[in-house]
Amino acid sequence: MIQEEPLLPFKTWLLEWDADRWGAFWHFLLVMVVLAMLSLVIGLIIGTILHGPVKAGERAYRVVANAFRELFHISPRRIWAIARVAMQEALRRRVLVAVAVFVLLLLFAGWFLKTDREPAKLYFSFVLTATSFLGLFIALLLSVFSLPNDFKTKTIYTVVTKPVRAGDIILGRILGFTLVGSLLLLVMGGASYLFVSRALTHTHTVAAQKELPERTSRSDGHSHKLEVRDDGQIIAMYEHGHEHSVEKRGDRYMVSPPEGMIRARVPLYGELKFLNRQGVEVEKGVSVGKEWGYRSFIEGGTQAAAVWTFDGINEDTLIDEGEDGRYLPIEIVVRVFRTWKADINTPVQGIIQLKRPGSDLKTEPEFFFADDNTIDLKYFPESLTDTNNQPVDLLEDLVSEDGQLEVVVQCLDRAQYFGFARGDCYIHLRDASPFWNFVKAYISIWVQMVVVIAIAVTGSTVLSGPIAMLFTVSFILLGFQRDFLMGVATDKVEGGGPIEALVRIPTHMNLISDFKDQHFGIKLMRLVDDGLQALMQVLASVLPDFGNLSTADYVAYGFDIPWNQVLQQLFLGGAYVIGLAIVGYFLLRNREVAK
Amino acid sequence: MNKQSSFIRKVVYAGILICLLIALAVLGLPATYSNPRGGTYSLARMKVDNQLAQSNLGEIDPASETMKLATLGLRGVAVNLLWNKADEYKKKEDWTNLTATLEQLARLQPNFITFWKYQSWNVSYNVSVQFDDYRDRYYYVREGIEFLKQGVAKNKENREIPQLLWDLGWFIGQKIGRADEYVQYRELFKNDDEFHGDDVPAGADERDNWLVSKMEYLNAISAVRDRKKSIGKKSEKIFYSSPAKSQMSYAEAIEEEGQFAKGQAAWRVAADEWSDFGDLEIEHSTGRMLRLGHEEEVAERVEQLEDQLADLSPGLREKLVEEKREALPEEQQAALAKSMEERNAEEVQLAYQAEQAIEVNDKEFVDRLAKEKPELRKEAGILARQLVEERTNLIYTRRYKSDANYDYWALRAEFEQTDTAVEARRKMFEAKQAFADRQAPELAKQLYEEGFDKWREVLETYPDLLDPDGVTGDDILVFVVDYRKVLDSLGEEIPDDFVLWDVIENFDAEGEFEEELRHRMETMGTSTADEASASEEAAEEQPAEESAAEESSDEQPAEPEETPAEAEEQPSEPEQPAPEENPKAPSDEESADPETSA
């Protein structure tokens, strides 16, 4: 699975205190403090202009003190009452139509989705993306028009005459809409799972004849090669991401449903380092000129190697195969790059070894033919032999005292290359339930939805319906493009700031070349851009990174979503709700009605 | 009052509404059975007349229409996003999502020909090479081809359809038949049930990639001929020569696989098709119609016209030349008077200039004629114009012929049919087998030598084959390389009386036989010395000839063609080999010792 940024441990993610990266909690705190200070200063300035400094200070104090008092008077009962109203309102507005749209989408999805060699990946990508877009869209429509409508129809006056506080209204709405949204997601999730599992299931037939035929029949765009194992079991070999087992009953063969199509591998990742052709440790391997620098390459026939260091290897890491003893299951993906074609029929060869960190003890090399871009499973039994042909024990000898083990991979063929990234080699601990994995993917969609609802409710406290909708949509779009926004803001993306880009487009200038003469206009443009870029940077630092919130890739590639990831997202969602609710509270308080 | 004005307003509104509705109804009159083209002013008629209706373009795809509608007028934005996504997926090697995105794009812009061309190329050529296993590579080559086929189905009636069909022919022919792994690809293609379906049994000739490619080229031609579609900026000489070329590649390929009887027959077909191509009128970019196989006739006509013109006033041309000669400066006259051998370097130059100066062109001739015999003026003018016309035709024909390598392929198709050539090829094939499969170098050596004797015979009969523009010499050289390997294994060297030394000398562009050639030079010292002096003499003569050639090319009528138009012929991406023949990429480099390449 592609992991361009490794997942940080939860504690590091939340609380790390580093010059380069602040933990999420500190970041949150900073944003809140800056926001509070900013609004206080602005409030004071406006108050001073209108009423003089003393009155302004008095008012500011009152607002803050009031807010603190109300914080302790928040009543779950009232919030629930508001939430119920919000839910009723949502249902009255026929949000369930969305479900019908979604089902319609699934019904016709087959028209647009071509069954490729990795059908599971395609189907999961599709349903999860579709749900997430539709879910966000509905969340937006649900929440953005509600408060403005209340203002318009003046129902808000009836509400505020009751002992309801501004905080209750905000939290109640967020809760109500979240509940409706969750219900919708639940239905969509169920339908999606059903759709995917129905779409993926298929079977083949095997012609009934004396000799086992070479292949199964074609179905769903593929057929399998048939092979008889040593124990007599017939297997329809791996193809299109799955295999089938075949049972012989009398003269006829019964083919099972696809096996291993939907998976949730639980991997244990290691840290990757490279050795260059002289065997010296380096951070990165060789670039073979690919635009995408995700993998770096090691040269064959030299001392160049990719070395993964795994942590926390103990008895539990091994899988028990009963009589056959225990094994260390290592899975590896090799990307092959040939500088010359060599023998077209023979794959490039490599070796894999286990090594004890900090010593020269290595196992005897295991040869393999590189199966390009495919997950290849390597079992290492407990008792192995080292390079001197002496027996070594995996746990006793090869794993260091602190539970570390190294896996060393090299390419053997001269002038051919193997490419690796950190996530290309891992210990396959076990398979988790694909169903729960799917649920976890839906939790991240749910988090995205909650964030959108919180933004929409907050925005709609002061903005009219359509404007609030535009505001929220921009928030979402910018959230999806957060990396790009940050890139432009910090000059990592070529082409300058927004004004410069605007000049480059009509003048047909490319992104790299500089302006010929640096006259005043250009300088002014740069100056304005610097200001805008600073603003963009501030904006980017509070935007939710929707792209990163998606966990669809895990499911699509068949990997278990780590709970750590889910927890991080839940925390993130919570932070947005709290932050936005506070902002929303003050905004609503500011309106005449809710004082 | 108020009520009344409001009533009037409503009536006016209603009136405007009705007027608009009537206009709309007239414009919107749909096509019906009785009136299949819709009303006189209806949009339906305009759609038919301008061939804009989906049913005028190709298959109607409800999914595509739904998707277009679902974008709510933002199709352009959606398409842009998807193209970007496709690029991103390609960069990040997510082939599954790339193909899925292409499918979506195909629904959104099914009649945009460039999309099909570009993206199918992308899949067949750029994505396929990302894989290590040739079976995976083949899978994506075929995906690209299938994608192009889908494009063809959706654009059957599109004006630009011949271009897609031609591309289809090119992919199936060249990408499968000329790849480094063509042996495997051709085999896979033949056994590809998914591609061919059940109608064509496995192993049938109809499954040969070159024949399938030829069929697609023919479809492209028929779309132009029968349905008046456009080939766009593609050069006609390439467009119309493609089927015959595929037939030749087919013959070549099956002979390489050891099917000689079939190969001989295939060459016969190829020769006929090539001569048909020669008879075909091909439009030059200036609008002239040329027939590549009829150069001699044009040349003859030019000659006839020249004679006719000269006959109008016999001796006039000589007279003019004489006048001009007398007007020459003295030193030029002196140089001209000397014989070739007597001239020194300076005189050669002077004589050349003099020769240029005394030449009489048609215009001078006609002008003088008109002065001397005014009654012949009109006739002479007509003849001179015809002459210019025919000369231009001749020049263009020659140029197109050389671009298409017409004569070489005609010759090739002719000699390959002969029993001698087939025998020569069979011996080569058997020799190779004897050496590689049966480990019998002695037998291989014998077979090679017998085969080379046959090749000698072929070359004697068709000496033009030694023309460096052709590829037969290169083909034979490959056999000589194999032969040398056999000799190496026996501890022998290429003998001095080897029959094909001239092939080695002419075609060893890579310098593989440098050592052998030097060795041969040394042993044959005397004779080569003679040759050397002879070639020196030739070199001395050369400047004059060369500049003469330049001059004559200056005389040719200015031709604005070739560059822009020809450049268009080649499909967009740079990786593609030139559409002119590019037989088997030499794989020697690849099989070279890894240590040297490392």
From TrEMBL, chain A:
* Record's keyword terms, sorted: Membrane, Transmembrane, Transmembrane helix
Q: What stretches pass through the bilayer?
A: 24-50, 95-113, 125-147, 174-196, 435-455, 462-480, 570-588
- Keyword flag Nucleotide-binding: no
Under the heading PANTHER family, the entry gives: ABC TRANSPORTER PERMEASE, SLL1107 PROTEIN
Q: What is this protein called?
A: ABC-type transport system involved in multi-copper enzyme maturation permease subunit
UniProtKB/TrEMBL annotation, chain B:
Q: Show the stretches that span the lipid bilayer.
A: 12-33
Q: Where are the residues of the annotated region Disordered? A: 524-598
Q: Where is the composition biased (Acidic residues)?
A: 533-572, 588-598
Q: Which keywords does this chain's UniProt record carry? A: Membrane, Transmembrane, Transmembrane helix
Highest taxon above the source species? Bacteria
Name the chain's protein.
Answer: IRE (Iron responsive element)
Recall the taxonomic lineage recorded for the source organism: Bacteria, Pseudomonadati, Planctomycetota, Planctomycetia, Pirellulales
